[in-house]
Amino acid sequence: MQTSADRQDRHQYPAHWEADVVLRDGGTARIRPITVDDADRLVSFYEQVSDESKYYRFFAPYPRLSAKDVHRFTHHDFVDRVGLAATIGGEFIATVRYDRIGADGMPATAPADEAEVAFLVQDAHQGRGVASALLEHIAAVARERGIRRFAAEVLPANTKMIKVFTDAGYTQKRSFEDGVVRLEFDLEPTDRSLAVQRAREQRAEARSVRRLLMPGSVAVVGVGRAPGGVGRSVLGNIRDAGYGGLLHAVNKAFPEDLGEVDGVPAYRCVRDIGGPVDLAVVAVPAEHVPAVVAECGEHGVQGLVVLSAGYAESGPEGRERQRALVRQARAYGMRIIGPNAFGIINTAPDVRLNASLAPEMPRPGRIGMFAQSGAIGIALLSRLHRRGGGVTGVTGVSTFVSAGNRADVSGNDVLQYWYDDPETDVALMYLESIGNPRKFTRLARRTAAAKPLVVVQGDGSAPPGHAVRATRLPHATVSALLRQAGVIRVDTITELVDAGLLLARQPLPAGPRVAILGNSESLGVLTYDRCLAEGLRPSRPLDLTTGATAQDFHRALGAALADETCDSVVVTAIPAIGEASPGDAELAEALRSAAAAVPGKPVLVVHVELGGLAEALSAAASTAPAAVEKAPRTEGGAHRPADRPPTATAEAASPPEGTHLIPAYPAAERAVRALAEAVRYGQWRREAADPGKVPEYDDIDEKGAARLIGELLARGEGLTISDAETCELLGKYGIPVRRALPAPTPDTAAEAARTLGYPVALKATAPHLRHRADLGGVRLDLADEEQLRRAYAELAELFGKPEELRPVVQGMAPRGVDTVVRAVIDPAAGAVLSFGLAGAASQLLGDMAHRLVPVTDREATSLVRSIRTAPLLFGWRGSTPVDTPALEELLLRVSRLVDDHPEVVAVTLEPVVVAPHGVSVLGATVRLAPPPARDDLGPRTMPAY
To answer: Virtual CA dihedral for 455, 460, 461, 466, nearest 10 degrees?
Structure first.
């Protein structure tokens, strides 16, 4: 990018400083270094800044920049002098620069670690959060260049800029001298600065999605002249849904005299539309999309839904086309859903937007839905829409997003929107891939603390067209981490909808105790068995017999709900024969009225061939679209649906305020699985309210460990350190490793045993025998030298020469349960701590539990108890319980080590023997490497393209 001959930069152009950011109002901008080629842009930018803003920047009237100023502000060495610009459409909208200074305030070079910083924001873009975003990025650049502190001088009247600095969350000092406010602040991120950054990120990304889902005007580009086709279909779907804003049809092939299409004003290009356009739905061939994007950008369109295919899903050429699309849209400050998208839906009464290929508008409701796949999006909408043939007792949708290739807007962005969306109570997501697991886990944890988040996750292989960060973690581990974050992780679309219906319509259960009642003994027993299989605590089913009346159901349900030993109720119902048997509507009303009397506990119905009952239970939740009146034309000619009261159909579908609709399921296993997920989620919510703390240990030598790691890494970028170095490093965190001495000969083995003291163990440490006691490479409880030499000879006879065995002698540890503790820093998910029993349980059965680092004391407790073989630690079948508090402390110390020192990229402690009193680490390996980049600690950025 820098080509001028007079450049005297000490460093090459730092392309990694370039970034796209979402601004406070939901628009986007690009941040990049200022170069010598930006002179004309800088002059043009300065001419558009008001005199007042210039005065605030230079403390004096400064109408124009001199040639010397332009040279100084565009020539940087990218070390001691750095300038960044925020751009939209290639033009500057704001600048920031720092100059390194010494203790005397004069220009300096390293090792001086202070710099003066100054901003200038075009008046038209003030209030959009541009300065805050620039501050985050210039601070990150400064830290990279060894600058630890910024100083800024600001006029007292420049309250906006003072607020930018004071609100950033950095540790700062403020003084006033000679009529100028001087601010000094450290650049090291603090808990408060990270919290401020993430709160700004949430607001900005949520608003960017809101602009897409709540547009005041929509243009469909690519509307065919004849009925049929994608563009014409979407136009009809928007119109028929009763969209509440202005609607326009666009096609460059329209005749010049064509005034409208299907009652919607028609235009040959977006530029011809008289008023603003907030959202453009693009349905043209991929080769024509760039021209459409340029039109939209020049017209000020805020966002795009690109339905067009032929992008990354089609191969390398399409992938490059997709990258160009994203770069082009971002240059204009626009966000994209797609390409290859199915569309978006917003059922809010004042919006009623169906900018999708779904032919019918779902009924308004409280469930938000996100799918990357169009086919899965269709399946989700269909499941919630239909009345029979699957889950009945349906409910409605608040918003729906099918992101296609999710080149820009992703599930993370939609989560940011749902987090504080008052219209969404439950979030359902089908994720074929997770582009940024670390961020998704963080957002999921925060969202799940406020509302249920149910996820079906793909098998870990990214579909064509999806940009996904590489992860070394197994698919099962990622799923476990999602559960830790409060995500309700299910395996199928059916389970996704089952859980969503329950969570949207019923309160969370307070515990696992389940009452079962109904008119079928066999169905009750089946439900009981499924509850046991899901880890619930059911009471014996109450059989009301096949002759039960609606009043019998009402009394039994009321009694069960009033019982303090019951947390939820499953009602089973089969068709009854006889004059006294209740009708569907009568039974549904009996169940609803009983549940309403005790509203704090969830009620589910398992029905068999009772379509009428299911419909009666869900009478207030039909997804059938309400009748839509033909919309009148506005004075400006645009199509705007009529403002009208709800139709009779809509009124009949509205439940009484505050009522909980009872979900009905056609199979016991589906109802119980949904209930079990709700129980586990409720438990997580209660625990999340008090997540525990990361304990401090007085004997941890963090600085000593840092020095040792630095010395070791000086030998190479990635290395597995020696046993002695491993013991030294772990020892600085209070993790002793039982000493093992090499024994290349029988005599050295005997000498090692005398040093350590009998009894000892003799182990082969060759890679093919390490941790494989089942192969016979370990001899334990050797009480004297004679036994030791005999064991040595046996190992040599079985496995070969000592140099092939690599034998060691180790003092015996107290008997206990062998476990394994691992920690790894994954470039995508972050640092992960894992625990399981050593041997077949973890290696063959995969019985390992995982937590994100840093681990709190409560998380360490749950980690130990969450493996399937945990009973072996707590006295299973009369065995002696082992010292799990000591094990939990070991886990916390390992967590602290990898959290404090990201250069520790892998730790394995195996085996860790947990005895009735204390733990013994018998083997340990540590790998060091330069730490992966932590983008979650850096400035806000959008995914790079």
So the answer is: 50
CA gap 310, 327 in Å, rounded: 17
> Residue 55: left if φ>0, alpha if ψ -120 to 50, beta else—which one?
alpha
**Sign, CA torsion 297/303/307/310:** positive
> How many whole angstroms separate alpha carbon 390 and alpha carbon 202?
37
What tens digit of pLDDT does each residue of 362-409 get? Answer: 888 899 999 988 788 888 887 776 533 333 344 789 999 999 999 999
Pairing type for strands 513-518 and 542-543 reads parallel
Give the span between the Cα atoms of 507 and 467, in whole angstroms.
Answer: 38
Are the C-beta atoms of 480 and 850 separated by less than 8 Å? yes
Report the C-alpha gap between 599 and 567 in whole angstroms: 12
| Alpha carbon separation from 832 to 460, 628, 847, 854 (Å, rounded) | 18, 53, 16, 9
Distance of CA 489 to the CA centre of its chain: 13
Quick one: tokens of 386?
Answer: 């239909």
Q: Which two three-digit tokens encode residue 107? A: 């220009």
User: What are the start-end ranges of the H helices in 314-373?
Assistant: 316-331
Place of tokens 């010598």: 36
Question: Percent of the chain at pLDDT above 90?
Answer: 58
What is the residue type of 572? T
Task: Give alpha helix (H) positions in 659-813.
Answer: 668-688, 702-713, 723-731, 746-756, 785-799, 802-805
Instruction: Tell me the per-residue pLDDT of 226-266, one tens digit each, with 9 for 90 and over.
Output: 888 899 999 999 999 999 899 999 999 999 888 899 999 99
Would you state the torsion angle of the CA atoms of residues 216, 222, 227, 232, taken in this order, to the nearest 10 degrees? -30
DSSP for residue 58: H
**If 0-12 CB within 10 Å is exposed, 13-18 middle and 19+ buried, where does residue 935 land?**
middle
Q: Which residue has the tokens 């032929």?
A: 310
Phi, psi of 331 (to 5 degrees): -60, -30
**Helix %, strand %, coil % of the chain (to 5):** 35, 20, 40
pLDDT over 60 (residue 333): yes
**Looking at this protein, which amino acid is placed at residue 416?**
Q
What single string gives the DSSP state of each residue in 870-935?
Answer: GGGGTTGGGPPP--HHHHHHHHHHHHHHHHH-TTEEEEEEEEEEE-SS-EEE--EEEEE-PPPP-T
Confidence of residue 641 (pLDDT cuts 50, 70, 90): very low
- pLDDT (tens digit, 9 = 90+) per residue, 421-446? 999 999 999 988 777 788 888 999 99
Residue 618 to residue 611: CA distance in whole angstroms = 11
**Residues in a beta bridge with 261:** 264
Contact 275, 247 (CB under 8 A): no
The Cα–Cα gap between 671 and 607 comes to 10
Cβ neighbours around 118 below 10 Å, total: 16
pLDDT in tens, 740-788: 888 899 898 898 889 888 998 888 888 777 766 667 778 888 889 888 8
Q: What is the pLDDT of residue 128?
A: 94
Pairwise CA distance, residues 468 & 434, whole Å:
7
Per-residue burial over 331-346, b if 16 or more Cβ lie within 10 Å, else e, is bbbbbbbbbbbbbbbb
Please give the average per-residue pLDDT across 142-146, as a whole number.
93
Q: Can you tell me the distance from the alpha carbon of 346 to that of 397, in angstroms, rounded to the nearest whole number?
A: 8
- Residue 656 tokens read as 């009484």
Number of other CB atoms surrounding residue 423 within 10 Å: 17
What 3-state class would DSSP assign to 384? helix
Looking at per-residue pLDDT, the higher value among 621 and 242 belongs to 242
At residue 546, what is the residue type?
Answer: T
Report residue 636 CA to chain centroid gap: 43
